[in-house]
Each structure stands twice: as structure tokens, then as C-alpha cells.
Amino acid sequence: MGNQYDTLEKDRLDTQACLDSKKTQLERNKLGQFSTPTILARDMLNHAYSLLPKHQKVSFLDPAIGTGAFYSALQNIFPDNRIRAAVGYEIDRHYAEPAIELWNDTKLNIHIADFTTQPPQKRFDLVICNPPYVRHHHIPSTDKARLQIRSHLASGHQLGGLAGLYCHFMLQANMWMNDGAIAGWLIPSEFMDVNYGIAAKHYLLETVTLLQIHRFDPNDVQFADALVSSAVVWIQNTPPPKGHRVRFTFGGSLSQPRIDRTVPVSILGSEHKWTRFPKNKARNQPDGPVIGDLFKIRRGIATGGNKHFILTDTEIHRRQLPMQFFKPILPSPRYLTNDIVLAGQDGAPNLDQRLFLLDIPLTESEIKKEHSSLWAYLQEIKSEGIHERYLCRHRSPWYSQEKRPTAPIVCTYMGRGDTKSKRPFRFILNESNATVANVYLAMYATPTLQTIIDADPDIIRVIWSELNALKPEDLLCEGRVYGGGLHKLEPKELAKVAVPNLAQYISNSTKNESCLFDHCAAVEVQNHPFAHALTH
Hints:
Layout: H1 2-21, H2 25-31, H3 38-51, E1 58-62, H4 69-77, E2 83-90, H5 93-102, E3 108-112, E4 124-129, H6 141-155, H7 165-172, E5 177-188, H8 198-206, E6 209-215, E7 230-236, E8 245-252, E9 257-264, H9 265-268, H10 291-294, E10 295-299, H11 306-309, E11 310-312, H12 313-318, E12 326-329, E13 340-341, E14 355-358, H13 364-370, H14 372-383, H15 390-393, E15 409-412, E16 414-416, E17 427-430, E18 440-445, H16 447-455, H17 459-468, H18 472-476, E19 480-482, E20 486-488, H19 491-495, H20 515-527, H21 531-534
Parallel strand pairs: 1-2, 1-4, 2-3, 4-5, 6-8, 13-17
Antiparallel strand pairs: 5-7, 6-7, 8-9, 10-18, 11-14, 12-14, 15-17, 15-18, 16-20, 19-20
Helix pairs in contact: 1-4, 1-5, 3-4, 6-7, 13-14
């Protein structure tokens, strides 16, 4: 049996490679088409075999079958007399028609259709799928509404508008599963941490029995053409038993994970970030303060075109642009060899590379009348279509920038855990008057902390030193991770990091926000491109 199916798998891989070569990577990314590697498909079917009752004959469903990687693995692992039926759905004829021809003499019945539009014809004992990884912004608004309604009807849980297509596949397949059926979903692990994944997690905890989540090491990207951290979610279509514990595994393979831990469902229901498991135990409520008690945290400025809006002082002088319309801005973290940015005599960073952000408070007619060189430069930018980019066209005027006061401490927004310093994120003491771009998180002292700093300016260095002394895992467990081991921290995530050594700088009044931020927030919301969406 093995040799026969090994030959079929070789034919399938040859077919897959040929079909992939006829599409651009951009086309496949947009449709979320990433073929499952053979070894991973077989590992998943081996695991499914161990979860099913012995000798049970199974009906198999793959809602996004592609060329049939999982069906090939099914035939390789399961004896033929245990495969009662097999059905696959594939929306793209480019892959479906060759797959139909390839598996013509087998039990597999492939439908060329969008799974999310099909009424369940029957129910299945085993659902294995690598659903399309289509981000929400590639889903038309009309399709989003349809998907949300259908997913809610199928599962009883309402996915938000930011949910990826893979979440809808998982919830909608609930209608296709027999009682006691097993499902294995190969999906991005980001649902475990982000807000749009909350509904999916409620489904996993409340509607079915979540058996296991295996998360692959982010440094071991499963799909060569998709920079995404992957997980396999195993569920059984039964109500969760009382006192149920979920198995979390990490690294290695499904059969031989590097880390293995069980976590009570009661803990998962209150834990926002599931990727902390199994490396970390369930967290206790912080005994002391968190960074958010000390600092108001904001993402740096998104200019819409750094090349055009951020210039060196040499370039500004060469073009004879008026310096009063530029303010200092820190360069990318890779250009900062030191974690302290000192100020020059003019207050700007004392660095070899001095950068300045173009920020003009004037109208175009005022600029044209009063500043000919600046007007010419804006016309040059316009000729390259910068004013039509998303951020620029949603600003008024299009060359204006978000408001970010100088922050005394900034934190890098992205990083890797395998750097020489072993610190994925850096806290940088900013003693200059520079603002920051969105590669940083700007940290502004709360009113109470600012009062302490005003009385003793050296305190900020003590706090900065304590922040850099945080253990990397304390930061990593609050952030999120992508394929290739790239870690990211959002403002709210950084705010949750515990800093017990800084308790002496906290008091109840730190919960108040300063007038400065009330003002900046009001200005920014009015001008922000997402303002309409946020207020509706």
C-alpha cells in the first residue's frame, strides 16, 4: 500500500509545483494558497489516527483541499477498509481540475465550489484542513457580512470584521461534523492572541472539546512562501467535560513536541494570550505595577512615505527648504548603537545621521505664496503619487502629520529573540527633543510619575535602567510572534508588562490622563483615516 501511495504523492507534488509556477506569489498570497508539506500532512493524519476509536470507519472532509495533500496522507496512514468516504472542496479550478484527474480512481469526491457557500450535504467523522490564509482586508465587505452570518449560524459565535477567512472555515465546519467527530486545523497562531480571535476561542472552549493546540517554533516556518507562525488545533465535536484540561505543545513535531503542558479550560477562559502556553505557566495577577501604570504608550508616527517626509539635514539645506517646518525624529533602531540618545546644542539628537520630519501647519495656497522651495518640493512629491497613498489621502492637508510630543523613553516595536544581546525589544532613553516614527512605541510619563521626575530628573534614568533589566520572556509573553521568529509589541501589550521593582513610583493618581494627551488624542481622532470607522 505504501509504495502505491508514495507514487501518487510524488505525482501530486509534481503537479503542485507545476501549478504554483503558473501563479505569482502575490496571487497566491491574496487567495491564501499555501500547500501543506508532505511530512506535516502525514504527521497530522498520524495524530488523527491516534485520536479516533480503533477500527472505526471514517468519512473524511477537507474544505480547502487544493491538490489533496491531506487526502494523500489519509491514504498513506489509514487502511483502505477504514476509509468510508472522502470529500473535498476547492474554489480554484486551477488546482481543482488537476486534482480531480489525479485522484480519479480513488474514493475522493472533489467539488469545485466555495466551501463557505455550500449547505452541508452530510456529516463527517474526520475534518482535516489547511484553510486559506486570507487576511480580512482581502475579503470584500459584502462577503464579510455573509461569512459573519453563516459562521454565527453554524457555531453560535459572532466573528468580528477583522477575522481572517480561516476563522470562518473553522466555525462553519461545525455544521459538517458528526457527534464525536475529530477535526484538525492547520492555521496561523495569531488567533491565540489578537482581539478578533476571541470569538474563535469561545467556540473552542464552549461549543466543542478543545483537545490540543500544537504551536510550531516560529523560527521553523512551515510554509516557505508565507511568513506566518503556524499552529494545529485539534477538537472533538462533543461538549467540553467538566474540569477539562487542554494539551498545549510547542516545537518539534506533533508526535514529538519539545514542550508539553496541560492547561485547565477555566484558566484559558480568562487568559487573553494563549501563546504563553506551554512555555509559561498560567499567570497570576501582577503583584506589583505594570508599565501602563507608569506610562501612557502610543505608537510612533506613520508618515505615509518616510522617504519623502523624513529628510537628513544635508538634504534639507541642499533643497533650501525652510527649517522651521521640520522637527527632529529618531532614525530606525538599527542605526542606534547606543540605548541613550543625547541631545546636541539645538536639542536634536547628537547622532551622525540627523533626520527631520516634514510637518507643515500651512495650507497649500499659503505655502505656494510664501515658500517657493517648499512648494516645489511638495509638487515633486505629488508627481510620484504620494498624496494618493492611503494615509496621505485621508489626512487634511495630505502632508500633515500625527502629533507626537517628545517621549523620554521609547521602545522598539519589533524584534527578534535571537539577537546577540538576547533582547528582542530595546528601551531607549531619549534625552533629545526628537519624535519617533512607527517603528517605536513612545512612552510618556503619567501625571504622577511626571511630578516625581520634575522633582528629581535623574529618576527617569533609574526607571529606564529597570526596564532594560526586564527578562526577555516577560516582554515576549505579552507580545505576538510571526514566522521566522519576529516578535511584535502593541501599546496595550507593552502596558501589561509587570515591573514590580518600580512600585515606589506608582500611586492611584497615575490612572488619570494628562491634559496633553486629551488634547493630542482629540486632534488625532479628528484627522485619523480610521476616525469614521472608530466612531461608527
